[in-house]
């Protein structure tokens, strides 16, 4: 799991708790079921079984892979629409190509993030590049959907390409954990992602036996998703493992710890930490549209069918199928 690595001893350290700080308790732990997305790539449905109230402002999250493809096996999506939210694709390992109907696009590779604001409406595609389809290789990433409040539902579409080298790197107080801040801020240190909805998104690597304790905005909810490995979450040490999501209650800080022994192919505890300011507005979702009412969903479908989300560009990316 390469993403972006660094010598934690050279990084800024996250400050310890103040005397008045409280730890966020674990309210629930759920295990995401496995399924398939797009043209057939395997995913874990990370938010399955969790109430919308606990997730707000997030709508959906898939862990894509982790899978080692054989030649000819990699899959992506075909061209499809979105309206009313933002999609965040974080590639931990492997490569994904992106293109959209508003001029955004590029290659998302190890540790990079593609942040697409669908807003008023957009068409896009995410697909493995042709050379990866032909050769096979490791594929592992996250796709997160971040809701937009009513006032921003029809914002102009926007694309942000965040390279792995741009994320803010921090270390736990003992140097045993590396934190990559993609968006929002931790301990006053901000990541590069620009968001309409105030959120924090970070990827932590916690070495065996190490512990990470970090401050968290009291006004945000808090979710901890296990990408890989085994460990504990919260002040009383609830056990968690790969594919599980912990929903935390109110407080000032989050504590996670890695078990002292990990599997040889998963040498550390890998976590996605995310939270945001709840929007607290009605959510009506129909496939790739996330709106505030049923009538807005009907309008989204009509606008898409009328070609109002833009056009597929000339010489556009298309799903690549190997020659048989």
Automatic annotation (TrEMBL):
Keyword set includes Membrane: no
Domain Pirin N-terminal as annotated: residue spans: 45-146
MF (Gene Ontology): metal ion binding; quercetin 2,3-dioxygenase activity
Amino-acid positions noted as binding Fe cation in the UniProt annotation, renumbered to this chain: 80, 82, 124, 126
Listed EC numbers: 1.13.11.24
Cofactor: Fe cation
Gene3D superfamilies membership: Jelly Rolls
Domain Pirin C-terminal intervals: 202-310
Pfam families: Pirin (PF02678), Pirin_C (PF05726)
Keywords assigned by UniProt, alphabetized: Dioxygenase, Iron, Metal-binding, Oxidoreductase
Domain of life: Bacteria
Region annotated Disordered, chain positions: 1-34
Free-text comment on the cofactor: Binds 1 Fe cation per subunit.
Similarity section: Belongs to the pirin family.
Protein name: Quercetin 2,3-dioxygenase
Naturally occurring in which organism (per UniProt): Mycolicibacterium vanbaalenii
């Amino acid at each position: 799991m390469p993403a972006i690595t660094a010598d934690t001893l050279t990084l800024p350290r996250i400050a310890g708790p103040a005397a008045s700080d409280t730890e966020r308790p674990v309210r629930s732990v759920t295990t995401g079921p496995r399924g398939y997305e797009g043209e057939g790539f395997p995913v874990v449905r990370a938010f399955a079984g969790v109430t919308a109230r606990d997730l707000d402002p997030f709508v959906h999250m898939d862990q894509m892979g982790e899978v080692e493809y054989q030649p000819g096996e990699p899959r992506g999506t075909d061209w499809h629409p979105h309206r009313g939210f933002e999609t965040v694709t974080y590639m931990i390992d492997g490569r994904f190509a992106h293109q959209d109907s508003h001029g955004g696009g590029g290659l998302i590779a190890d540790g990079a993030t593609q942040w697409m604001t669908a807003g008023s409406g957009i068409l896009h595609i995410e697909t493995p590049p042709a050379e990866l389809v032909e050769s096979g290789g490791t594929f592992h990433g996250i796709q997160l959907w971040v809701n937009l409040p009513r006032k921003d539902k029809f914002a102009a579409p926007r694309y942000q390409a965040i390279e792995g080298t741009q994320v803010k790197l921090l270390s736990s107080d003992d140097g045993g954990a590396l934190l990559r801040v993609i968006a929002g801020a931790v301990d006053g240190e901000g990541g590069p992602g620009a968001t309409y909805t105030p959120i924090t998104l970070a990827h932590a690597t916690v070495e065996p036996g190490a512990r990470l304790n970090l401050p968290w905005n009291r006004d945000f909810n808090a979710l901890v998703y296990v990408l890989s490995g085994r460990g504990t979450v919260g002040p009383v040490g609830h056990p968690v493992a790969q594919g599980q999501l912990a929903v935390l209650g109110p407080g000032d800080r989050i504590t996670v710890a890695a078990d002292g022994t990990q599997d040889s192919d998963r040498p550390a505890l890998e976590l996605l930490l995310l939270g945001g300011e709840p929007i607290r507005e009605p959510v009506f979702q129909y496939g790739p549209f996330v709106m505030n009412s049923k009538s807005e969903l009907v309008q989204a479908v009509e606008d898409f069918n009328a070609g109002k989300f833009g056009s597929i560009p000339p010489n556009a990316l298309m799903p690549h199928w190997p020659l048989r």
